[in-house]
Design goal:
The chain is mainly beta. The protein has one domain: Lipocalin. The protein has an eight-stranded antiparallel beta barrel with strand order 1-4-5-7-8-9-10-11. A hairpin with a 2-residue loop joins strand 7 and strand 8. The protein starts with 5 loop residues before the first strand and ends with a strand.
Length: about 180
């Protein structure tokens, strides 16, 4: 007997997709993406075999500095005129221990698709005051931005570079169960 999959969608009001990267090699600059979407199919509230599709609009980047956001949107980085979306499609969600998983899949940025693994902490499932089932997750990982042709940089007089190569991904996600 085949079971029907449970569909979940991201709750954008209670989710944050963010990143941080070294600046001047001494501190981190943080940013978020304001426009994103995800659909997850699970076996009820068991996410161990879930399939996940996620996308975001790089033009929605927000670092709190308009000039920096404009540079990130330019051809030096995200090239939002040519590449309107970044996307992730899961291959597996492997349980490491209770509440902790490893999410593996394919990430596409600027038309380049590479494998990506993220650490996932499952916060549980809860009903909100209006009777909606919500599932909470924290996702963490890192990428080398050069793997996706995000190569712009500037050398510093004292040595080193302006922008670090490693980008840390930090996501707080709430999913909403669909009827």
């Amino acid at each position: 007997m085949e079971t029907t999959k449970t569909k979940w969608v991201i709750d954008p009001v209670h989710s944050e997709i963010s990143f941080k990267v070294k600046h001047l090699m001494i501190s981190n600059v943080k940013g978020t993406f304001k426009e994103f979407d995800a659909t997850v199919y699970s076996d009820g509230e068991d996410f161990s075999t879930a399939s996940i599709e996620f996308s975001l609009k790089p033009a929605s980047v927000d670092t709190g500095v308009a000039d920096r956001d404009g540079h990130l949107k330019s051809a030096d980085f995200f090239d939002v005129e040519k590449y309107e979306t970044m996307a992730f499609k899961s291959d597996s969600l492997k349980k490491i221990e209770d509440g902790n998983y490893e999410l593996a899949g394919a990430m596409t940025i600027k038309g380049i698709t590479k494998n990506l693994k993220l650490e996932v902490e499952f916060g549980g499932v809860m009903k909100d005051p209006w009777g909606n089932s919500k599932a909470g997750f924290t996702l963490n990982g890192k990428i080398n931005r050069k793997d996706w042709d995000l190569t712009w940089n500037a050398a510093l007089e004292a040595g080193g570079v302006l922008v670090g190569e490693t980008v840390y991904i930090i996501c707080e996600v709430q999913l909403l169960k669909q009827a």
